User: Fold these one by one.
Assistant:
Number 1:
Amino acid sequence: MRDVIVAANWKMHTTPADAGDLARTIAGRTREAGVIRVICPPYVCLAPVAEAVADDDPPVAVGAQNIHHELAGAYTGEIAAPMLAGLATWVILGHSERRRDAGESDALIGRKLGRAVDAGLRPILCVGEQLEEREGGRATDVVDEQLAGALDGHDAAALAAAGLVIAYEPVWAIGTGRNARGADAAAMADAIRSSLEGRGWGSRAADVPVLYGGSVTSANIDEFLTEPGIDGALVGGASLKPDEMAGIVARAGLTARARSAQR
Ligand code: 13P
């Protein structure tokens, strides 16, 4: 049975002075058995967030929003995966905002994926199409290409053992208040697992958690989590609001309980 995961991507919000309090508040309001909670603050807030949630039960994981594709060197302003030891256990890779603003290619994201796995970080690989690609009927092909570019050349068994998570985040749904339809997200989750199956993952593909991201709120999370192929959410704007996170994780708790009852 796949993990149920709610990951908070705080993007470029919060400061070391306020991040710990926000993380503690969210942690205290989202304790749901069977739901993996992950908070991904800016790098400079990793330490205060990790400290704030250290004793929470069930545990809250802390993730970074990016890593560099090299281990060390002359890369001004960058952070390498091994530097996150003791600060983070998860990492978001290939977010569309980094593809857009930092020009990250699928191949580069694939190199980061290798660094993440080597450093023991659990990766959330983001994929998703632009609006014109969806309107042109190419959404599935675009996502398939993103998966191929980032995953080919990696050992499927090693990525599966590292707990690879895929986040389907249609670019047109991010920060727009216009979420995808649950049925479309579920169809893409199926397409993602078929793509993995066809590129060396075989039956392991069925075990890969697929999250939906893009204007997720407590009001629309139900639409996604009623889909059996969707295992949680990668939440942006709403993840900074404790009320919203409480609603989203509570709904994820229903899915986790239903799944454990099926076992
Ligand atoms: P929003 O939830 O703000 O649309 O952001 C989604 C996202 O990009 C999460 O990584």
Note: The mean pLDDT is 97.
Number 2:
Amino acid sequence: MATPGAVRSASENEAWWKSAVVYQIYPRSFADSDNDGIGDLPGIVDRLDYLQELGIDVIWLSPVYRSPQQDNGYDVSDYQDVDPLFGTLEDLDRLIAAVHVRGMRLIMDLVVNHTSDQHPWFLASRASREAPTSDWYFWRDARPGTVPGEPGSEPNNWGASFGGSAWMWVPERGQYYLHLFDPSQPDLNWDNPDTREAIFTMMNWWLDRGIDGFRMDVINFISKDPEMPDAPLNRDGYGDGMAYFSYGPQIHAYLAEMKRRVFDPRPDTYLTVGEMPGVTPEQAREFTHREHGQLAMVFQYEHVFLDADGDKWTQRRMNINDLRDTLAKWQTALGDSGWNSLYWNNHDQPRVVSRYGNDTTYWRESATALATVLHLHRGTPYVYQGEEIGMTNAPFAALDDFRDIESLDYYAKAVCTHHEDPADVLDILRRRSRDNSRTPMQWSAVPGAGFTTGSPWIGVNPNHNWLNVAAQRGTPGSIFEYYRALIALRHRLPVVVDGNFVAVHTGRDQIYAFRRHLGDTTLTVHANLSDLPVSFDRDDLTARDLVLTNYTLSRSGPGRLEPWEVRVHVR
Ligand code: NOJ
């Protein structure tokens, strides 16, 4: 394995990922080399110099495996091949080599809570109870006393994440299978040791190919309560089964087995990050514990749910106190023994500058302020493609503009089944749809945004005419250059990586302030997370100690911050 340049690592066995910055690529929307409208692996290779200039250490590649693409690759039909949409296995080998040559690393998405319903394991399993993979999925009989296959005869009342029942009837088997997401994504039965064995073998095959770790899709869902009881009802009339599968009885055992079988026997250290909806800070600390944890870090959801009211399709105003308290709570709870992942955006979240920032009047200021507080927390920061230039939500005009299976399912259920007003449903999709983050990367102002010269699979945001890489790269004061400075700060100052975290109370709601301490060094962040200027009791901070700010010509005195102004002091 190549020794990374920027990552401080004395030995391969150190937790090198603690000083790393990760960049997530959603391949379909990043760079399209053959101009068929869909991004691909050679397109990524062409853009590696850009990522190196940004200063990132690791690329997380969203799924490029063979897939029917019902959920844009999160429905895998062959874990050991590349979908022709994105290129070939040889293209991926070339990408891995090109990443390593530049001193960077690459982790793959691992989608093993479920497969595609077109995976050979599932095709065989659904065809016969005698098949070797018969028991690799969750098959259950109809509820006793009901007519199998009729509504209401599902084994329990759980709803699926993408709407409807979590159970699908298969006449050939005379049974239902469980799918916590779309019916095309049947859940794998991890309780069967053969299933686990096949997954671990596949993971080892990838590590042997030279990748540097995995981002593990909804990995906390792999152990289900074997009783699978009915659950309290959600707004949509289905049971919320989270309590029975988000922290199941075997979750620690299965992840520990994975660690033993896949990672422990190897001399190198890998980045493992588990996506864990619903995880609590206490659970996260255990999963990532320095001594007995099973993963390097997890993705929690609490801070990206603060503008939702109960479920993801109801919007409320995010309260700044909640945001501050939530961020600080996770910092403190994981403390010295666990490790946080730090993120605002990914392919499932609307763009943060449009959600928690101000994407009009204070677009640049709020994008850089939010970046600052995130990157200067304790943990490993993740940048989602386009975040580094302040990409915003998209102005979707009509239902036809959306592509995401979750959004389209929601619209169909809300409008056709629950007879909600189509205009209201479109409005909430515009704010909350995952497609907001999936519009093509904005490289330049030309038609197609430099992403493609063909017809893009999802519309390019019209604001690419001014919001694009070409306009910002090398431009003093741009969001891109600010991200570079922020990433460089992490690489330069050990206090950013290893310093402990202490929240600071300024007595002003809209200010988020904290300190990081390491030895004799103290780093202090003051961030005004609002559209209004604010004064506060002056700290003993001096201009001499200022290492970073997003206002080059601040009119403010020492005890005052302009809208979305941040100041970082080190002494
Ligand atoms: C989480 C992924 O991030 C999301 O995109 C996907 O739809 C679900 N898991 C199901 O795999």
Note: The mean pLDDT is 95.
Number 3:
Amino acid sequence: MCGIIGYTPAQTESQPNGNGNILDVLLDGLSDLEYRGYDSAGVAIANSSVTVHKRNGELSELEATVSEESVGGYAGIGHTRWSTHGPPSDENAHPHTDCNGSVAVVHNGIIENYRELREELTAAGHEFDSQTDTEVIPHLIETSLEQGANVETAFRRAIDRLEGSFAVAAVFSGSEAVYATRNQSPLVLGIGEDGYHLASDVPAFLDHTDQVVYLQDEQFAKLCSSGVEITDKGRTLVDMPVKTVEWDPEEAGKSGYDHYMLKEINEQPRAIRNCIRGRVDEMTGSISIKELDDLDRPERIHLVACGTSYHASLYAARLFRDGDIPATAFYASEYDASAVPINEETLVIGVTQSGETADTVGALRDANSKGAETLAVTNVVGGSASRKTDHVMYIRSGPEISVAATKTFASQQVALAMLSTTLTGECSHEFVEGLRALPDQIQSILDSSRVREVVGTYVNSDAYFFIGRGYGAPVALEGALKMKEITYKHAEGFPAGELKHGPLALVTDRTPVVAIVSGKSNTEKMLGNVKEVEAREAPVITVTDSPDTVENYADHLLQIPETAWQFTPILANVQLQLLAYRTANQLGRSIDKPRNLAKSVTVE
Ligand code: F6R
């Protein structure tokens, strides 16, 4: 997720004009935003002109380019970039400028209509230096400035043209203010004695002030040496409350959550909104994935992946098969392209959040060499997987810091579900409505989950078993993986029908069984499996959208809302994530960095 920062020094005795050395404040702030993950960084400082420094790679690369110069100025902005449009490079790093270099802009989020805007601006003679969606903003501003608008009007007019999610900040040559606004992307202002700050997250300026104002959607902020002005869309002044942040810097990176894992579980509604954005046609209610326009319905599909991504692949393989495309999910490490039917009509999909997993990248390479068409479904722009495949679909989760994958699993499933509709040609009204409702439904689970009541009772169990059928089976596997990796407890997931073929021997009164029971499919059979484990005195925790049906069979019930059948597993998984997290927390485990595990596994 990109990080934004802005700063204007206050008028003080030592700097009566508010003209101070802004660079140090910006660079310090950017280093405080590093935890969010980034691939390039940059700053812009305004005085009579605008000076921009930006570099691909670590912040130290940027620092090396600016350390010789002490840039004084009235206003500055900075950015750490997590690529969404265009790979990491010096050119794609923010800030971006107009043709004259007199306005510089940083942006967090996605501008959905940037293609149309870019075409329009290019036709009008503007020249673009980057592949980003962001660069349309300074050129839009430039257009209004040329028409005689002042900087504030030009900024507002440009923002008016944007569709999508964004937090934007800009500085202008000859202007001593930072202008900023937001729509569905966070932006917070800091009111300090040394000056006025803005950032996408509090840690960026917590060393300077704990007095903050949370900007709301469609509000505009103007920061200058004499203070901060907040206005609404109609330019009416808005009086926003100033709040005191009580986090220490360590907590602040996690936005107050105890662990990144919990923060990322809670980020799922936003991650899914990002994944969907611009991919649902509001007019027709159909799904369209522009970057995959040239991908035809294949004869068959292979999905290759590891761990959690493999579980997302199992889910997707089922969706493709239900849409009549033969599809199989393979552990990437077990994929043998010479032993499976494969030709140019085969689509091999590598599902990998990091884009760097050696087994998955290797399987894609093999598939390529056998002539298959390849697609990476990934979170990291410019990662190895995206460079080695014919097509790429980004899941747009933002960086995931905790080793245990959570929000990326949800986004992978959503991305693959959308992909399945475009390849199979089957997209029902119920599917689109379910997709749109998903972020709010996840939020409702996060707000009301009763997992805490369950955890205390079973925290010292011998083992945990997870069962599900059909679309519930991959979730059962994922629930067990999450439980084992962060609690270090024995946990196993099974397709429920497999229980009686062996695993039932392990079931006792000290092994809680978590059953995913949807009222929409396989209900009777699942209830039969639940009875089997109850007969062995195992406590049963059900995750269900159908409480009336299961209430007589379960010791505990974790409810999820009803939705289109494709999305029930995504909702059920949120309860399982919370169950694993709360259990690990009670056991005092190292949740974000479990023993022996790494976020990105780059060896085969
Ligand atoms: C588990 C987990 C791992 C990864 C696996 C693949 O929580 O995160 O099982 O899913 O290592 O990683 P990616 O998706 O980066 O290929």
Note: The pocket of fructose -6-phosphate is lined by residues 306-309, 352-354, 357, 360, 404-405, 481, 485, 600-601 (CB under 6 Å).
